[in-house]
């Protein structure tokens, strides 16, 4: 199934290792971290002060949500701009190709060769 041993979170486990015990210990570690983050308090002058890290408050109250929305809007604006650029560039190339084909048609119709070929142009009206 696996090679000779299994690696979980950087620690190597031997083949006969009990995965249920490993999962249970990982769950206990996660629970201990959760309890530690919930009960941050200090006693100062007989008064209990409860505190959290800034990142925990930001994550808990979802204060970073507007910033995420800003980045999403930037991405949408960039994609819209790129799509518009591709569309306009394609239209310009197609119009130039059509003008070139029209000039070639006129040159062939008038049987122009050499220096006289350069004198034909389509004048927009």
From TrEMBL:
The chain crosses the membrane at residues 70-88. Keywords: Membrane, Transmembrane, Transmembrane helix. It comes from the Eukaryota. This is Uncharacterized protein. It comes from Toxocara canis.
């Amino acid at each position: 199934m696996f090679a000779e041993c299994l690696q979980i979170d950087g620690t190597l486990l031997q083949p006969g290792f009990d995965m249920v015990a490993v999962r249970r210990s990982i769950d206990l570690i996660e629970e201990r971290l959760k309890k530690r983050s919930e009960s941050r308090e200090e006693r100062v002058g007989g008064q209990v002060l409860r505190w959290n890290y800034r990142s925990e408050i930001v994550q808990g109250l979802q204060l970073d949500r507007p910033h995420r929305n800003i980045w999403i809007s930037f991405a949408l604006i960039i994609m819209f701009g790129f799509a518009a650029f591709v569309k306009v560039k394609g239209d310009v190339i197609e119009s130039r190709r059509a003008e070139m084909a029209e000039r070639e048609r006129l040159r062939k119709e008038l049987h122009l060769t050499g220096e006289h070929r350069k004198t034909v142009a389509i004048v927009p009206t």
